[in-house]
């Protein structure tokens, strides 16, 4: 039988059989063996990649640069303005500015803190009133101060304010304090005023 099979083999038969094998299995073999090393850098374009085939897990962390994103896709840097004040005695009902901050036009989240103390002798109550004027947004805080110890002075309390404000033009934000009667006074040990500019806002200009 081997003799009969050998006698029927020819060069044409061998070539035809080899061609059929390559046609059926050659594509699969190529797909399994082609790697990134076989592709020339810069030779592939967007048209060679199927839409949606590349996901976040296919991208190496830290490999993308700012230039790889369209304008507005990345959040901008946080811009904050800050002012410190204090070391002031507030007397009477007139406003005393304890912190002041100039800011350019924009939308802001605003935070202010004031530390107040009653310097009066024991038994003397003082009402400390402070206001955050964020240009178009005003927050009011009032703190009753009751003296506790005639040696060390009276109560020390903190007033805190938070608000949002949108300025159509540059403005000055202020923290102002006053007493409720003409003969009252209190000390402002420290004051801080911080305005953080936000990149987008749902509220419009208030000026």
Radius of gyration: 38 Å
Amount of beta strand:
35-45%
Number of helices: 2
The unreliable regions are 201-207
Series of H and E elements: HHEEEEEEEEE
Nearest-integer average pLDDT: 78
Approximately how much helix is present in the residues?
Answer: 10-25%
Instruction: Tell how many strands the DSSP assignment holds.
Output: 9
Taken from the alpha-carbon principal axes, the silhouette is: rod-shaped
Which structural category do the helix and sheet elements fall into? Answer: mainly beta
Query: What composes the largest sheet?
Result: 5 strands, antiparallel
Span between N and C termini?
104 Å
Can you walk through the features of this model?
This protein is mainly beta and 207 residues long. Helix content is 14%, strand content 40%. It contains two helices and nine strands. It has helices at 2-8, 11-33, and strands spanning 79-85, 88-91, 96-103, 106-117, 125-133, 138-146, 156-167, 171-179, 185-197. The strands form two sheets. Strands 1, 2, 4, 7 and 9 form a five-stranded antiparallel β-sheet that branches. Strands 3-8-5-6 form a four-stranded antiparallel β-sheet, with no helix packed on it. The longest helix has 23 residues, at 11-33. The protein is rod-shaped. The model is unreliable at 201-207 (pLDDT under 50).
């Amino acid at each position: 039988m081997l003799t009969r099979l050998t006698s029927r083999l020819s060069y044409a038969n061998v070539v035809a059989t080899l061609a059929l094998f390559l046609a059926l299995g050659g594509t699969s073999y190529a797909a399994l063996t082609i790697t990134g090393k076989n592709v020339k850098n810069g030779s592939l374009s967007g048209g060679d990649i199927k839409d949606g085939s590349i996901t976040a897990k296919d991208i190496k962390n830290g490999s993308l640069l700012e230039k790889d994103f369209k304008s507005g896709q990345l959040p901008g840097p946080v811009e904050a303005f800050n002012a410190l004040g204090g070391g002031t005695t507030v007397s009477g009902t007139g406003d005393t500015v304890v912190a002041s901050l100039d800011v350019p036009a924009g939308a802001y989240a605003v935070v202010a803190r004031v530390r107040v103390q009653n310097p009066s002798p024991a038994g003397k109550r003082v009402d400390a009133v402070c206001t955050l004027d964020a240009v178009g947004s005003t927050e009011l805080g009032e703190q009753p101060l009751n003296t506790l110890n005639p040696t060390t002075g009276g109560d020390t309390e903190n007033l805190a304010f938070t608000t949002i404000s949108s300025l159509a033009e540059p403005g000055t934000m202020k923290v102002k304090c006053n007493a409720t009667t003409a003969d009252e006074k209190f000390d402002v040990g420290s004051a801080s005023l911080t305005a953080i500019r936000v990149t987008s806002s749902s509220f419009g200009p208030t000026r």
